[in-house]
Design brief:
The chain is of the alpha+beta class and 481 residues long. It has 3 domains: 110 residues, Trigger factor ribosome-binding domain (Alpha-Beta Plaits, 2-Layer Sandwich); 226 residues, Orthogonal Bundle (Trigger factor, domain 2), CATH 1.10.3120.10; 105 residues, Chitinase A, domain 3, CATH 3.10.50. The chain is 46% helix and 19% strand. The chain contains 14 helices and 13 strands. The strands form 3 sheets. Strands 7, 8, 9, 10, 11 and 12 form a 6-stranded antiparallel β-sheet that branches. Strand 8 and strand 9 form a beta hairpin. The longest helix is centred in the middle third of the chain and has 34 residues.
Length: 481
C-alpha cells in the first residue's frame, strides 16, 4: 500500500492511497471466505457454497466491506507512519481503478492540532487562605430564620425600610416601554405585577425602594432610577428609566426565634447546637469544594495560556452550537423568556464560541499530557464509576452498563475519567501558594468556577459542557402564605 499525506491548514490533511491489485484480491478473498462460512443458502451445506455463488449473492456487501477495510488499513498505516492523530476521515473520493488492477483514492482527514507541549509540571497556583468564620455561620442561621418567617399585612402606616411592598410597576425610556425603546427584552426592569419588593437599597435598581418609602397602600408613585454601569445588559447601562409604581400591599416580616424546637423542625432530633454544627460542616464542605474547583479552573486557565494552536473548524462549530443550545436551555430554565433569549443571540453565540474554544483547547492539551505521561484508565476504575452511576440511577449495574454501551456514552465516560486523572496529575505536580483572605472570599463566592475539562466531552464526540447565559438577577417574588 502506497500512502502519501498532504497536511493542510485548519487541522486538515489529504490522504492519497494506492493499493496494489494483489493486496486487493487477497483481502477480497478473505471477505468472501468469511461470507461463505456464515452464509445459509438452500441447496448448499454451510461452508461449502461456491465462491461464484457467494459473489453473486453478496457482491455489494463484499465490495462495501472491502472498501471499509482498505480505508481503515490506510488510516492505521498513515497514523503510524506520519504520526497523525486522526479525528475524522471523509468517505473515499476520486477513486480510480487502473488497468493493472491497482486502486487509487483519496480522503480528506480532520486531524488533531500539532503543537509542542508546554512545561506543564510545576504550574504555580494561588489558593485562597479562607476558612469558615462565626459570621458565616450566623449569616446562614439568619437565612434559615428568614425562610421560616411569617408575614403580616400592614394597613395602619406607610411602607418603610425593611418591609415587603407588593407592587405593580412599569418602566419607560423616552416615553416608550423600555423593551420597545431598546429593541430587546429587559427582564424584570420592564415591569411586573404582584411583585414582592424587599425595601432595601439594592432592590431592582439603586434608589428604587427609597423612592417608595412613606407611600401608603393604593398610592401611585412616579420616579426615575439610573441603571448602574455594572448592569448585565450593556445597552441599558447608564440610562435613566422612568417608573410608575402602584402599592398594592405592605407586608411586615417577623422572624422566628432560633430555639431548640425550631432546630428540631429543621433537623429532626436535633437542637440549636446540633443545627449549628451541621451548618458549619456543610459550609466547610462547600468551601473545600469551591477551593478545589478554583484550583482546577486556575490550573487549566494557566495551562491553556502557555501554548497557542489552531482548532478543527468542524469541531469548533459543533462545540459552539452545543454550548449555545445548552446556554439557551439553561436560560429558559432559569425563567428567561424566548424573546429575551432571541434578543441576546449575538451575546450568547459570542460566549458559546469562547467557551467552545477553551473546552477544545483544554481537551487536546490534556489528551497529549496523558499520552506523554502514560496516564491510563484501568478497567477497575471504570467499573467502579459505572457501578456508582448505576446505584445513583437506581438501576442494575449490568443493565446500566449495557445502556451506556448502546448509547455510545461509555466512550465519553472513559474520556472524561481520563481527563480527570490527568488534571489530578497536574495538581499533584503544581506549586501551590496561599493568598489573603479577601481574595479567598472572592474566590469562594465566584459562581463562575467550573470543572472545565472534566466533562464527558471529547473533540471527536463534540459533547458540550457549559453554563447558561448571564441572565439578570431578578428579585424573588413571594406568594402569600
Amino acid at each position: 500500500m502506497n500512502i502519501t499525506v498532504e497536511r493542510q491548514s485548519d487541522c486538515a490533511a489529504r490522504l492519497r492511497v494506492e493499493i496494489p491489485s494483489n493486496q486487493l484480491k487477497e483481502e477480497r478473498l478473505k471477505i468472501i471466505r468469511a461470507f461463505g462460512n456464515q452464509a445459509r443458502i438452500r441447496g448448499f451445506r454451510p461452508g461449502k457454497v461456491p465462491r461464484t455463488v457467494i459473489e453473486k449473492r453478496f457482491g455489494e456487501q463484499i465490495s462495501a466491506e472491502l472498501e471499509q477495510r482498505m480505508m481503515q488499513n490506510a488510516l492505521n498505516e498513515a497514523a503510524e507512519k506520519e504520526d497523525l492523530r486522526i479525528i475524522n476521515a471523509n468517505p473515499p473520493e476520486d477513486a480510480v481503478h487502473h488497468p493493472d488492477g491497482t486502486l487509487a483514492f483519496s480522503s480528506v482527514l480532520t486531524i488533531a492540532p500539532e503543537f509542542e507541549l508546554p512545561e506543564y509540571k510545576g504550574i504555580s497556583l494561588e489558593i485562597p487562605d479562607r476558612s469558615i468564620t462565626e459570621e458565616d455561620i450566623q449569616n446562614e442561621l439568619q437565612n434559615i430564620r428568614t425562610r421560616y418567617a411569617d408575614y403580616s399585612d400592614v394597613t395602619d402606616r406607610p411602607v418603610k425600610s425593611g418591609d415587603f411592598a407588593v407592587i405593580d410597576y412599569k418602566s419607560q425610556l423616552d416615553g416608550k416601554p423600555t423593551e420597545e425603546a431598546v429593541g430587546q427584552a429587559v427582564g424584570y426592569l420592564g415591569g411586573g405585577d404582584d411583585y414582592w419588593l424587599k425595601m432595601e437599597d439594592d432592590s431592582i435598581l439603586p434608589g428604587f425602594s427609597k423612592a417608595l418609602e412613606g407611600s401608603n397602600m393604593g398610592e401611585d408613585r412616579d420616579f426615575s432610577c439610573t441603571v448602574p454601569e455594572e448592569f448585565p445588559i450593556e445597552e441599558l447601562r447608564g440610562l435613566e428609566l422612568d417608573f410608575h409604581v402602584t402599592i398594592k400591599g405592605i407586608k411586615e416580616q417577623k422572624l422566628p426565634e432560633l430555639t431548640d424546637e425550631l432546630a428540631a423542625e429543621i433537623l429532626p432530633g436535633s437542637d440549636v447546637k446540633g443545627l449549628t454544627e451541621m451548618i458549619q460542616g456543610n459550609l466547610e464542605q462547600q468551601l473545600n469544594q469551591q477551593i478545589e474547583e478554583f484550583k482546577v479552573s486556575q490550573l487549566l486557565e494557566k495551562l491553556t495560556s502557555m501554548v497557542q494552536f489552531e482548532l478543527p473548524p468542524e469541531l469548533l462549530e459543533a462545540e459552539t452550537q452545543g454550548q449555545a443550545d445548552e446556554m439557551v436551555e439553561r436560560g429558559l430554565g432559569s425563567g428567561m423568556s424566548e424573546d429575551e433569549i432571541e434578543g441576546r443571540q449575538e451575546e450568547i453565540f459570542s460566549a458559546a464560541t469562547q467557551r467552545a474554544q477553551t473546552n477544545l483547547k483544554t481537551d487536546f492539551l490534556l489528551q497529549r499530557i496523558a499520552e506523554a505521561e502514560e496516564i491510563q484508565l484501568t478497567q477497575e476504575e471504570l467499573a467502579n464509576r459505572v457501578a456508582a452511576m448505576a446505584n445513583q440511577a437506581k438501576k442494575p449495574i449490568k443493565a446500566f452498563a449495557e445502556e451506556l454501551q448502546k448509547s455510545d456514552r461509555l466512550r465519553g465516560l472513559q474520556h472524561s475519567m481520563l481527563l480527570s486523572k490527568t488534571i489530578d496529575f497536574l495538581l499533584e505536580h503544581a506549586k501551590v501558594d496561599g493568598i489573603d483572605s479577601a481574595a479567598g472570599e472572592h474566590a469562594a463566592d465566584d459562581d463562575s468556577v467550573t470543572e472545565t475539562g472534566k466533562t464527558e466531552a471529547d473533540p471527536e464526540n463534540q459533547s458540550p459542557e457549559t453554563p447558561s447565559p448571564d441572565s439578570t438577577e431578578e428579585e424573588s417574588s413571594k406568594e402569600d402564605e
